[in-house]
Write a structure and sequence with these properties.
By secondary structure, this protein is α+β, with helices and mostly antiparallel strands. It has helices at residues 5-30, 75-80, 123-126, 142-145, 213-221, 249-252, 296-299, 313-318; strands at residues 47-53, 68-74, 132-137, 153-160, 170-182, 206-211, 226-233, 262-268, 271-278, 281-289, 305-308, 327-329. Helix 8 links the parallel strand 11 (305-308) and strand 12. The longest helix has 26 residues, at 5-30. The N and C termini lie far apart (183 Å).
């Protein structure tokens, strides 16, 4: 079969178009599809928990949950407010800790503001200028001792031991005295003889009080002459009480004061006879040898010497003094001087 020139030309062009189409398809398939890149989100802002003082807190304060308010701030806000960048961020770690310094309202809690956990100010740190620390034993019953704690304000009561002519008397010795420590506890919530500080197990107590030098002298004067006890009062009570007046059972019940006992001593040739009378009744008598010198030349002239604290002839006769012949030294009526 013989092809014409026109058919040959058409075949050549068809082949060329086929090659061009195949090349174009190959190039299209070889191209990678465009991948969409998601937009980069804005950087997340860090939120910081900042516990702050809800009110102005004094030094020595044991922190409670009510003393704090928790705020959520960014670092930019912290810097803008001029707050320190080092602070306690866990509110739970602050409860029970003791402040070393005074803290203003809205201030964060920094480690330097706090005593180490489980500790607090010692007695010397709590003393104000001009005051002294003095320790005294307490005569309070256990339930009353359990109500006391360092930092409390109390009145100091003194009760005398009855002795001789002195009846048992109670008086308010000191007013508005701060407790610095109870036994080994020198701050609220501290350790009391190994206990947990809640007052449990206290059978007796020794308290350390903050006193002026004059008050310390008063406590030392009554030392060993009676018992001391404390009466709790409000720390906001700025008024002193009525001038303390010593009280006895007779004055409270409006009873007549008991008459003091009368003691009569009779010296007879070196022998001393002592008799004690109450309400005209002899309640005690003792005999012994006295060192009272009796000159030999006057021994016969002065067989006995009788002394008594009151002018009571009947008492002298009851003690064995002669009704006459012996010399009696009696006090003058009214003043008691011989």
């Amino acid at each position: 079969m013989k092809l014409s020139s026109g058919t040959l030309v058409l075949g050549v062009f068809a082949a060329l178009f086929g090659l061009v189409g195949a090349y174009a398809a190959k190039q299209h398939l070889a191209e990678k599809p465009e991948v969409e890149v998601p937009a980069t989100p804005a950087a997340q802002v860090e939120i910081i928990t900042v516990p702050m003082a809800a009110v102005a807190l004094p030094a020595g304060r044991t922190i409670t949950n009510a003393d704090m308010v928790v705020r959520k701030l960014t670092w930019e806000q912290i810097r803008a407010q001029g707050l320190p960048t080092e602070f306690m961020s866990a509110a739970g770690q602050l409860i029970g800790r003791t402040l070393r310094v005074e803290l203003a309202k809205g201030s964060p809690f920094t480690p330097a503001d706090l005593y180490p956990e489980g500790t607090g100010p010692n007695v010397a740190e709590r003393l104000k200028p001009g005051y002294r620390a003095v320790s005294v034993p307490l005569g309070n019953p256990q339930p009353e001792i359990a109500l006391l704690s360092p930092g409390a304000v109390v009145d100091v009561m003194f009760r005398t031991f009855p002795k001789g002519n002195l009846p048992e008397t109670t008086v308010t010795l000191l007013e508005k005295i701060e407790i610095l420590a109870i036994n080994e506890q020198s701050f609220p919530g501290g350790r009391v003889n190994g206990a947990n500080g809640n007052g449990g197990g206290r059978q007796s107590a020794t308290v350390t009080l903050a006193c002026t030098p004059e008050q310390v002298s008063a406590l030392k004067v009554v030392e060993g002459r009676g018992t001391l006890s404390l009466v709790l009062r409000s720390s906001d009570d700025l008024l002193a009480g009525v001038s303390p007046v010593p009280q006895t059972l007779e004055s409270l019940l409006d009873l007549p004061e008991p008459k003091p006992p009368v003691m009569t001593q009779v010296y007879r040739r070196g022998q001393l006879t002592t008799a004690v009378f109450e309400d005209g009744r002899q309640v005690a008598v003792s005999e012994g040898f006295s060192g009272l010198p009796v000159p030999a030349e006057t021994a016969d002239a002065r067989p006995s010497v009788t002394t008594t604290s009151y002018a009571r002839p009947a008492v002298e006769r009851a003690a064995g003094a002669p009704a006459s012949g012996g010399k009696t030294e009696e006090p003058c009526s009214g003043c008691g001087h011989k």
